[in-house]
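Appendix B, record 7
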Amino acid sequence: MEAARDHDIAPERIFAVILAESGFNPQAVSRAGARGLMQIMPSTFTWLVELRGMNYTEEDLFNPRINIDFGAYYLRRQYNTLGNWDHAHMAYNAGIGTVQGWLRNENIAPDGVIIHNQIPFGETRRYIYKVNNAIREYRRLYFMDS
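Structure tokens (predicted):
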């Protein structure tokens, strides 16, 4: 997978996010307005397009190649900031500012690691569970050496 290679992310991690975000529906639109396979908000996409010096429109979020590239790029940015894949996935779902706040709360993140059952947002708790289960299953089925 090109985006996995380009952004140095295990392909099963990207597949797990796609499964959790859109169920592999490239035309998915959330109630909040996130679009495409990796459910990117148009405002986030506009910011990332400018940051990367590219020229795309919101309609390009429905192009699987572009959506996955930008979703992977955004996920990598979360990881680079937070240094932990679970935290990066939480930020992808709940926002980086939210996760940084959780990390400052000793009841949620003793020793600087967020305890999954202490995540304040039920949606994010379920999201992390779904992503991690999918990663394990993809590794088991497709990516582990026999």
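Remarks on this record: The helical segments are 2-7, 11-22, 42-52, 64-82, 85-94, 96-104, 122-143. The first helix runs from residue 2 to 7.
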